[in-house]
Amino acid sequence: MNPNHAYATARQLIDPDANYTVHTRTDNGWAQPTDPNHRELPGLDVLLAARRVLRARPAGHVQSTGPNTLDIRTGDGQLWLRFTTASSSAGQAPGDPAPGDCFG
Which residues partner with 101 through β-bridges? Predict the structure, then answer.
């Protein structure tokens, strides 16, 4: 897929005014960063992360796995991030990736 088209699609999924809870993929599943200052990002930062991953070589992927969940992974598969809208993830642990639309 064309990186510009993939980015345009990712822009439709990310609300730049929302706050997103951050999760990283580990050997044991999804986990939040240990530093409390790294557990939440504004939507604009999530959009920039998606843009960088999609423009990297090899190109990464942005995938919507649910109405309030967005997965971003690098093209080499070394970094997987999951963003959930902060209001939808309060007190809720994210599940494993489900089939969804993949962009990139």
Answer: 64
